[in-house]
Write a structure and sequence with these properties.
The protein is of the alpha/beta class. The chain is 37% helix and 22% strand.
Length: 306
């Protein structure tokens, strides 16, 4: 089976469901709370694995009670977690998430151990990375490691997909432009390019700007508006099923995990994006991040119901 390497973060998600945020000095009771495994890298890896992908995970967990549980979660989802290692004396990454009554989320991240996934850690896994057909990256680990992996992809001739999340201003565009695939949402696209993204026309122009600079494929995720795929040759808008949203947390990661699984299996871009928008929409109908990700059978049943 073709393999996907996810080189990225893991977090423990502390999800509070609340109609509004407290103002300064106020104590406010929220109706619900949930704890779950999250982190953009881990979420993308789990989504791909639940859909049948063979996933190699490189990540750093903390030296605390979350660390062993996070590693066990990768293993129980069928992920190769030999390179999920503990950062001695460092705490795990955590993410307090606030979800409002419309299902929209606000997220704080404390990277913790994720900051310690180093260039040396990546190079130690090189023999196993070489067996992969795609490398998936996000921005919740150190930028030095992110840039190294982009160069490694070029060096080893392995396509790299970067999800530039969370958005960081001032990324090194010489590195970004070497990417095979870039998958930003609208905000990330705006921050990356410095161009407006208020209309579909704006989004097309900003994505085209990136392909003109060398990125081979740009896929802009646009929530309920679907996704826009832009290459030097084509521009395709892929619509999204309209669903009753409970919680959008982790929907972007569901998209990427599903896309990576289908793209690596079949090598076709548009069908992979079509599957990914449907899978992401399904994830928004359930609370939580990884908890909302369907397996193969659940995904099939959902598609049959559309
Ligand atoms: O994309 C959603 C994820 O962002 C959450 O799981 C949280 O951990 C943060 O990393």
């Amino acid at each position: 089976m073709k393999k996907i390497a996810v080189i990225g973060s893991n977090m423990v998600d502390l999800v509070t469901y609340t109609d509004r945020m407290p103002i300064q000095g106020e104590t406010l009771e929220a109706p619900d709370f949930d704890l779950g495994f999250g982190g953009k890298g881990a979420n993308q890896a789990i989504a791909a694995a639940r859909l049948g992908a063979d996933v190699l995970m490189l990540s750093k967990v903390g030296d605390d009670m979350f660390g062993p549980n996070t590693k066990a979660n990768f293993i129980s989802n069928g992920i190769d977690a030999r390179y999920v290692e503990t950062a001695p004396g460092i705490s795990s990454g955590v993410a307090p998430i606030f979800v409002d009554s419309n299902g929209q989320n606000s997220i704080l991240i404390i990277k913790g151990a994720n900051n310690h996934l180093s260039v040396a850690d990546v190079e130690r896994a090189i023999e196993d990375i070489r067996k992969c057909e795609l490398i998936v990256l996000q921005l919740e680990i150190s930028l030095e490691t992110v840039y190294h992996v982009i160069e490694l992809g070029v060096r080893e001739n392995i396509p790299v997909l970067l999800n530039p999340a969370p958005a960081i201003a001032g990324l090194d565009m010489d590195k970004i432009c070497q990417l095979d695939m870039l998958v930003p949402n609208e905000t990330e696209l705006e921050i990356l390019t410095g161009l407006p993204v208020d209309t579909l026309g704006h989004i097309e122009t900003a994505a085209k700007f990136l392909t003109s600079k060398g990125v081979k494929k740009v896929i802009v995720t646009m929530g309920s508006k679907g996704a826009l795929l832009v290459t030097a040759e084509e521009m395709t808008l892929i619509p999204c099923p309209q669903v009753e949203v409970k919680d959008t947390s982790g929907a972007g990661d569901a998209f990427i995990g599903c896309f990576a699984n289908h793209y690596v299996a079949n090598g076709e871009l548009i069908p992979a994006v079509q599957q990914a928008v449907i899978y992401a929409s399904l994830s928004t109908m359930k609370p939580g991040t990884q908890k909302s990700y369907a397996n193969v059978d659940q995904f099939k049943a959902y598609k049959n119901s559309l």
